[in-house]
Fold methionine--tRNA ligase.
Amino acid sequence: MATLVTRLDDPQALKAAAAAAAAGATLSVLALSDSSTWKKLLADPSCPEAARDIFLVLPNGTALGDPNAIARYLTGPALLLEGFDFANESWLEWEESHLRPAVYGGNAAALESAVQHLSAALSGSNQQFLGGSKLGLSDIAVFATLRPLADSSTLAPLQPYLQRVAALPALAEASQQLQLGSFDASNGDCSSSSFLADAAARQAALPKLPIPGQRNILITSALPYVNNVPHLGNIIGCVLSADVYARFCRSRGYNVVYVCGTDEYGTATETKALEEGLSCQQICDKYHAIHKSIYEWFDIGFDKFGRTPTRAQTEIGQSIFQTLQDRGCLVEQSMEQLFSEPLGKFLADRFVTGTCPKCKYDDARGDQCDSCGQLLNPTELINPKCALTGSTPVVRQTKHIFLDLPSLSPDLQAYIDRTSALGGWSSNCVQVTKAWMEQGLKVRCITRDLKWGTPVPRDGYENKVFYVWFDAPIGYISITANYCSDWQAWWKNPEDVELVQFMGKDNVPFHTVIFPATLLGTQEPWTMMKSISVTEYLNYEDGKFSKSRGVGVFGNDAKDTGIPVEVWRYYLLAVRPETSDSAFQWDDFAMKNNAELNDNLGNFINRTLKFCYARFEKTVPGEGAGGAGTEAVRSLGEKLGPLVEQYIAALEALRMKDALKAAMLVSKAGNLFFQETEIWVAYKQDREAASTYISACAGIVLLLAALLQPFMPSFTAKLLQQLGVQQPPLLTDDLVKAAASPATLLPAGHPIGAAEPTPLFRKITEDEVAELRARFAGNQADRTAAAATAAASGSSSAVSGAKSGKGGGKSAPAAATNAKSGPAGGGPAAAAAAASADGTATQAASGKEKQNKAKAAGSGGGKGGGGKGGAKEPERPADISRLNLRVGLITKAWRHPDAESLYVEEVDVGEAAPRTVVSGLVKFIPEAEMQQRRVVLVCNLKPANMRGIQSQAMVLAATAPDGSKVELVEPPAGAAIGERLSVEGFDCSQPDEQLNPKKKVWEAVQPDLATNELRVACYRGLPLLTSAGPATVSSVAGGSIK
């Protein structure tokens, strides 16, 4: 016997019960709330959502989870024809794909169309049911879905049919078994709590569209580049600020859509892919998942978090380009661009670095200077270098498409003048935009010589793509298009939709000049940006956050600290750099948590709820009889009302910090009221006054839950649970008025949560601050390497009496394999690693002292040191720095006399005598081509006997992914014989004298040696460099080097 597990009032369960009754099958029905046996099944993440509310457990223990599939299984030939019943199956598919979405989605137009479709099908002379004169499974499916709308006038044409189905014995039996009651439209509503819950959930999940007559707000935050992990400055600069505003707008009752996503096209992605040895798609998939995970942890409530490489992006971007071209807003020009002769290609902006011509910063990128923010062309850099090879590029001519900004300037200036005043643009935004316009706009290139991007739809441009800053803002539109098919209702509806955008100040000109000019040039009715919120820079301690350099606290770091997300959100918003740069400071972070969250907000809430719990039987008592205490509460309300009004006004104007301050002043007012009224004394002397006082405090707690929900949604969720409230009140004008009477915000007798209230925050100690500061000192690469070194040292010291080369030495190379820098030394990063390994703040704070002691111990080695050889140095990470890679010249090569597959080579590596090397290259490289070849060798391997000949080095070669080809790794012609190769970020000046085979260093390093798509020999995506440029191979891309 099968068992149906369901909510007893679920109309979809009627399909299974009626099908079983019609077939004469016995069906056991078990309420979902009682299905403890199946909790493990429901908890399984792989369990489909549709199967969590209704499923059929079969006798063999398997389960079916779709209502129609369950009904098919139970009915057999009773309601379906033998073989394939085309008519019934067609109707069942239509019920699932058309009727059910219309009913549960509340789509009146779709429902009316469905009713007309059914009426037409039932209009025949002998058409009592959908299949003719006989009841079919499709009739049961349609009836079950329409049953909750029995009293709807829309169903009037179908009432005779529905009554016929309802009168059948199988339906009556099933309705009784599921406790659904009889079907009678005249008796009114036949809906159920299950139907209402499912309908609400489906409607909430449907894409929102603008509603005429309401305030419709489209919110975007700058699309984060997908090539790195976002740091706290990125998070507060766009997604977190926009999230606060979106949550506020939803709470005000506005119709809001908040979209964002990862910006995945362009040079930055290609660079990262090369660095990590992955394809562009792989790198995008990897970092999109990282971004999404971080934003989910930060409680960012997007309506859609998408990506730019989509069909919609291509279609919309190319359509805008074509329209601009048709309207004469694009021009083709030849331009000078830097060309890499070693790579044989034009270099995209970010593949060029050099000195900024404006501020003389010596590590400016080809598109923008990170120091002064100046937008650049690569040819403007002083002493430009190719970021891939280190060589000096040359200037060559190439053709590109330019946006004719000068011709668009009049319309653009009119838009800026009108909208900056109407939308209340911030002063920093106005200043940046004004500076651009006053300098006079120039034509701006919108194409690039790249592969990873939106293709340019123009003959002769097959190998070019749109420039990322033409393409990326279009991502807002395409992500909206992937959220709802009718994207133009949001983006081509300036009369009904407000566009509000959030970003850092470095993105301003693209959103106030270039993107608006692009849209204006099409002469189409685009929804143009009305309001813009721009942040200055959030610095880190005494320096700057930097994604590229790994400096600061990153999104995943915040999660790993164990400090709750609400604390991070609060602090970032409290120091939000709205009008000037601000800084993340660990001391300030702890102070704001301790004084503002714990001592002010948390203390007030905990005192209030504990008083209700202990003194008023876990309830909010309500105002006392006879008006006791009302005067004090009235005075309190006079303070609260204006604060809430200030809060609303500040958020409407995008002033997050002012709104947060107003909310915290509400908490401060509550704390002061609790203290001044001495509720604990009033409770003993005037119980009625105490009731009024504590009810006012509880009302403030509810008010704080609403005010702080946009800023700290996780805090509000925890608070509401303790307060015994399901949802915070909406931030309506009614709530603003009600704030003046806080004692009535919660009804008298309201029960608070069942459990005794507990503190919502805790203090961060000075020791924790010291540990955190040390832990996040330096950069990510240093921290990773230092942690690996500390782990190796800890493992070695844990094994008492361990012999040299054993006792945990393997862990250091293994951990260091993923590091992107050379061996870690001392300094803050090492102290951080030591602190992390010990797990105690005290040890972290004294990390430097420990290092000094270790050095002192080490210096006392030997016989005079008072010990047995002093402290042992930790094993160096097994990375490229330990290999002695040299440029060599094969002066002579011949076949090994005793091995057909081996060559013997005489190689000059700049030493007094040549080295003898044995290589297994006979099958791949003809002997004639081995003569006088420049090569790269590993010169510090332990000499090995190869069939009677000792090999004193190893020639490096790249093997194609399919093994079909092997090619020598060759240094550039200008590299000196004997020159040592290096890799950026690694100290290659002191390799091991000879690699110890037992340490497996070569085996650890080799998997990270490969050629990239440009055929450059790389270690972990970074070129193997000589003074004349990188080592390369002739044709093998993506090949393993060994």
